[in-house]
Amino acid sequence: MGASSSRRITLHDVAERSGVSYQTVSRVINDHPYVASETRDRVLKAIHELDYRPNKAAKSLAARRSQTLAVIAYGMDYYGPAQMIIHIERAAKRAGYDLIFSNVADISRENMRLAINSLSGWQVDGILAITPVISSVCEELDSICAGTPVIQIDNPLGASEPSVVVDQSYGSELATQHLIDLGHTRIAEISGPLGWHGAQARHKSWRRTLVRAGLEPGPSQEGDWTARGGYRAVQRLLQPGLDCTAIVVGNDQMALGVMRGLREHGLRIPEDVSIVGFDDVPEAEWYEPPLTTIRQDFAALGKRGVEYLVERIGDPDAPPRQHVIAPQIIQRLSTAPPCFGR
Amino acid sequence: MGASSSRRITLHDVAERSGVSYQTVSRVINDHPYVASETRDRVLKAIHELDYRPNKAAKSLAARRSQTLAVIAYGMDYYGPAQMIIHIERAAKRAGYDLIFSNVADISRENMRLAINSLSGWQVDGILAITPVISSVCEELDSICAGTPVIQIDNPLGASEPSVVVDQSYGSELATQHLIDLGHTRIAEISGPLGWHGAQARHKSWRRTLVRAGLEPGPSQEGDWTARGGYRAVQRLLQPGLDCTAIVVGNDQMALGVMRGLREHGLRIPEDVSIVGFDDVPEAEWYEPPLTTIRQDFAALGKRGVEYLVERIGDPDAPPRQHVIAPQIIQRLSTAPPCFGR
DNA sequence: ACTATCATTGTGAGCGCTCACAGAAGCGAG
DNA sequence: CTCGCTTCTGTGAGCGCTCACAATGATAGT
Q1: How many whole angstroms separate alpha carbon B22 and alpha carbon B16?
Q2: Percentages (nearest 5) of helix, strand, coil residues in chain A
Q3: Architecture of the structural domain at A11-54
Q4: Domain residues of chain B, as ranges?
Q5: Could you tell me if B82 lies within 8 Å of chain A, comparing CB atoms?
Q6: Interior angle at CA B186, CA B182 and CA B187, nearest 5
Q7: Which overall architecture, per CATH, does domain A168-296 show?
Q8: A65-166+298-326: which CATH architecture?
Q9: Is A11-54's fold the same as A65-166+298-326's?
């Protein structure tokens, strides 16, 4: 199996072996028309025999494009972004692109610039940036990328840059309205870090939905997406004596901590307090009790992102769009009508 | 900010602007010695002014190496692999490598070959393959890669290929012995899919540890890593009438399903049945009750993988090693001495 | 028969960089 | 003052590929 020669196999080797010019081999590889099928077969055979693998560096150098997409990820520790990456990779592969990948520790202008500089050296055909955090970088991204098409994922709803987002406001509205519909009138919130677009949007929408229903917004605490953060936030909520029968929580992990905190105070879920999460992680269904939550379709987010990026690579001057994906409420057992007999 | 010229900036442009030859510019970029510091400053200035970004395709074509590592991931849906990717990226960046990334749907020979073919076209300097599933590919990987150094992550303990693994057997032993030490004598298991090295190793070790302690291995059921799988497995365990006081579970997600199943049968945790998970996902601490589990240090796995790969790139003919990372037991509240008064 | 057209193949140049080499200074030692 | 040495800079070639163009032979139209 290991016929090893020191030199790498090139187009020329294949050309020589199959008795044609290197250009013809190139044509075969790139599926150009105007190659006699008999010739094509001969070349294909030689390619296979020599185990020839085209050098993509040379190809992208000569062709001035690389069939490669770059992803700048942020928050890969969280379920959502990780999920997106998987589906971005899948969609990219299907569209014939390789994926080069960079994870930034924070969305500072400097970090972003560094990542993009590094990636754009690869002549990537397009860039997907996961930008869920509020930062001026989002608006400058286009100019930093200097001509390479960029799609933002999870940027603010209504932004003018090409992007794909989940309608966080609508998600929060679904959650809040669901509780209102159940009869709750005092509805608190434990939000994600307000530096995140999503957290910010959900927070505002929670408030707006309550006001629209003629209810006074309950207290709100800021968490950090982790279960521990949720636990601490609910403790802060509980300290002044909890005056609400339902809590809208920023994500499912925090909801886990919230449930713990509530139980430690002798409060039952959903009898005493109803809880709605956000994300619908696979485990949410198995929490105790199973968590009512707002499903974000991260897979769709990644997939649509790539599709839109590929579209823009084909037509970079088309007016920018923002693709919006609607979230969905998944009702389980952590929500119920308020128990008035308390 | 958009001073836009159509042509890309090259070494020559920088050379011209700073009044030196292109070679000198190249020397500055690559930190070669023997550049007068005055010259260096001038070049650096020009680079900055022109916003010059070296073309990595050209560089890797000329230099015959790319400063790029490839990751072939599998099972990115799971916490462990996703976690590894993050830390692989981090370590790669620190070592000065870019990362190109491919996720395979299954570890078939064909899929693996395809992925490697595609990646090796980039002249990657090294490959990291996450191969947690039993397959002949693992042993053939070296020959498929044709000279490019490969490190396997999560391959079988004791394999001869260069690799980094967690000592799964030891992990399972820790879990089982912990239960034995608590006084349990009838200890069941819900394993992961036995097609995975880890699941297989843990299964065998669970059995071995019990036998060594003079105990008869309780029943064992195979799960699929998901909470639902755990739930179903525990139902199968419960059907014949559960004859054990403790269960070693293949991962934390399944443990979640197992706890649900147990509770539905009126069994309390840990009073009636003790549970040990595996992985220590961040949420495990917040499960109800907090889960005793075996921590795998996925971060270390990824980091060590990259470090070892870089080392092998430097010295490809060094004898292969297998780096082993020890897991650790995290005791929480899902385990307790058996309750004899039942 | 003589061009017009098509399918098929080949040739030159160059993408932006690094390598190996060669030259031009500067400086103390014999 | 010539030699060897170190420090600095420049030149040629070529990495493996694609592009634009030209050239060939076959087929058809008039």
Answers
A1: 8
A2: 45, 15, 40
A3: Orthogonal Bundle (1.10)
A4: 11-54, 65-166+298-326, 168-296
A5: yes
A6: 75
A7: 3-Layer(aba) Sandwich (3.40)
A8: 3-Layer(aba) Sandwich (3.40)
A9: no
Cα–Cα distance between A222 and A199 in angstroms, integer? 9
Which value, to the nearest 10 degrees, does the dihedral of the CA atoms of residues B19, B20, B21, B27 take? -140
Q: Is the Cβ–Cβ distance between A218 and A156 less than 8 Å?
A: no
Helices (H), B97-136: 109-120
Q: pTM of the predicted model, to two decimals?
A: 0.92
Nearest residue on chain A to B264, alpha-carbon basis: A288
First to last CA, chain A: 76
Q: What is the Cα gyration radius of chain A? A: 26
Question: How confident is the model over B242-268, as pLDDT tens digits?
Answer: 789 999 999 999 999 999 999 999 999
Question: Chain A window 264-323: which residues touch B at a Cβ cutoff of 8 Å?
Answer: 282-283, 285-288
Contact, B61 CB vs strand C, < 7 Å = yes
Quick: pLDDT tens for B6-56: 578 999 999 999 999 999 999 999 998 888 999 999 999 999 999 999 999
Among residues B62, B73, B71, B55, which one has the least CA distance to residue B119? B71
Asked whether the CA dihedral A309, A315, A321, A325 is positive or negative, the reply is: negative
The tokens describing B187, both together, are 């200890």
How far apart CA A123 and CA B61 sit, in angstroms, is 13
